[in-house]
Amino acid sequence: SISASKLLIPLSYAAIFGGTCTLIGTSTNLVVNGLWVAEGGPGLRMFDLAWVGIPIALTGLAYVMLFGSRLLPDHKAEKGLFDNPREYTVEMIVDPAGPLVNQTIQQAGLRHLGVLYLVEIEREGRVIPAVNSEERLRANDRLVFAGDVSAIVDLQRLRGLLPVLSEDRTLEKQVPERKLVEVVVSPRCPLINKTLRDSRFHTYYGATVIAVARDGKRVTGGLGDLVLRAADTLLLEARPVWVDRHHHSPDFLLVSSVEDSDIPRHDRAWQAWLILAGIVGMATFGILDLVTAAILGGALMFLSGCISGGTARKSVDTQVLIVIACSFALGKGLQVTGAAEAIAAQLMTLPGSHPWLALLMVYLITSTLTEVITNNAAAVVMFPIAVAIADSLGVNATPFIIAIMMAASASFATPLGYQTNLMVMGPGGYKFMDFVRIGLPLNLLLAGVSVFVIPQVWPF
User: Fold this and answer.
1) Rounded to 5 degrees, what angle do the CA atoms 145, 151, 153 make?
2) Span 290-294, mean pLDDT?
3) I need a surface site. Which of 113, 114, 339, 374 has the fewest CB within 10 A?
4) Cα dihedral sign, 91-94-95-98
């Protein structure tokens, strides 16, 4: 019952704080480090940035905790009459080998599910209709929920619950990657007037029925005993290609994918953690360079079955790569034409020969650019200028390089400053000034922390 607008900007900021702590925390760190190595610099190791990143993260978290409640807007979501036109009924079984056994309803997180509520529990032939928050779950308990599609998507991702109609998990064993699909049953469907259990829907269509809605209302009784009727809306768990194969099937009036409904591979989680730890460890201790370690890790994720080839291809953000490539051209142009030195000479009239003031100026200019263009572009544009300023002062350029990394990532005052800010703007119902109100003081605060800490670790 907390407004999303009180949580989503802090969520975005926390992601930014974490990105400042390691070399792979954000693409900007990798880009600037690559430019620095190409210039003959020593480059940075995996956790070198933590010396300044951790103070930034702690300061930022303290700021959000102390002032967030007062500076963040409170946009209460307005619920309309037609927000939930279909109330699905979904049955889940408590996995005997899962983590929810012997937990109370409250501990399992099943009491406050927003637009999804626990209707009843079926246990050893008896029904518990009014479920108490302190009721403990037992292995093979059947839980009946009612709610809309978005809540059921979240329920499917909860480890320890399995759909009742697929207790053998045949689909999971055969097809690791699955998603949710909505279908409306046609009068021509051959399974009409049969129960879901007797119809063997999974065998017939290669998909598992997760939930059912009828006339927009919750159905009573167990899903397995539900007699299928025309116009019933079914929520299915199926392969990603299922929609394409059945889109024109006469058995269904409508076939539609549910967005962002991929089912997590909980059984592969430990392998993914091991691969990630291996990548970080090899890069940290210099066993492999970062690029080689990352490529090896991606290959192992694919070979171990953690992801498919299609998922791997979709995870490559082509737009980001194009922006970075174009930024390189822009930065190189400033360097080879002498524009970077000219700009540096003009800027040096402000701080004079004081490296601390020059460092602050580089940080503030980078931070300002980041708020209006992409963080990668701002970093690449400022890189040759910062190197030229360091050369003109006759000091070590490393503090200026670190300042660019921090300033390009630590952008909080506009939704355009960083990708995560833009991601939360719509769901949080934020306006542009909401970011300015809480983000501008944070920008200035972290500028002071960075400019103070950086020369302590990397002297001029």
Assistant:
1) 105
2) 84
3) 114
4) positive
**Cα–Cα distance, 378 to 371 (Å, whole number):** 9
Predicted confidence (pLDDT) per residue in 223-242, tens digit: 777 888 888 888 888 887 88
CB atoms closer than 10 angstroms to residue 384: 22
* Contact assessment for residue 450 and residue 406, using Cβ atoms and an 8 Å cutoff: yes
Distance CA 105, CA 111 (A): 6
Cα of first residue to Cα of last residue in the chain, in angstroms, is 51
* Residue written as token pair 């931070």: 367
Residue 456: other Cβ atoms inside 10 A: 10
CA gap 298, 290 in Å, rounded: 12
Give the tokens for residue 244. Answer: 């394409």
How far is 332 from 326, CA to CA, in rounded Å? Answer: 10
Q: β-strands 88-94, 208-213: how paired?
A: antiparallel
Largest CA distance in the chain: 86
Residue with tokens 């490539």: 325
Length of the chain: 460
The answer for residues whose C-beta is within 8 angstroms of residue 227's C-beta and 6 or more apart is: 193, 194, 195
Q: Can you tell me which residue has the tokens 């109330």?
A: 87
Q: Which two tokens stand for residue 450?
A: 């960075």
Distance CA 420, CA 427 (A): 12
DSSP 145-157: EEE-HHHHHHHHT
Whether 96 contacts 138, CB under 8 Å: no
Cα–Cα dist 217/58, whole Å: 48
Contacts of residue 136, Cβ cutoff 8 Å, sequence gap at least 6: 102, 103, 104
Per the listing, tokens 């701080």 go with: 351
Question: How would you label 19-40 residue by residue, b for 16+ Cβ within 10 Å and e otherwise?
Answer: bbbbbbbbbbbbbbbebbeeee
pLDDT of 48 higher than 70: yes
Going by C-alpha positions, the residue among 335, 360, 339, 154 that lies closest to residue 261 is 154
Q: Note the pLDDT tens digit of each residue in 384-443.
A: 888 888 888 888 999 999 999 999 888 898 887 777 888 888 878 888 899 999 999 999
Q: How many Å apart are CA 89 and CA 411, to the nearest integer?
A: 44
pLDDT of residue 171: 45
DSSP string, 260-285: T-PPP-GGGHHHHHHHHHHHHHHHHT
Q: Tokens 């990630």, residue?
A: 276
The model's pTM is: 0.63
Q: Which region, left, alpha or beta, applies to residue 160 given φ > 0 means left and ψ of -120 to 50 means alpha?
A: left
C-alpha R_g of the chain? 27
Nearest alpha carbon to residue 122 among 111, 109, 135: 135
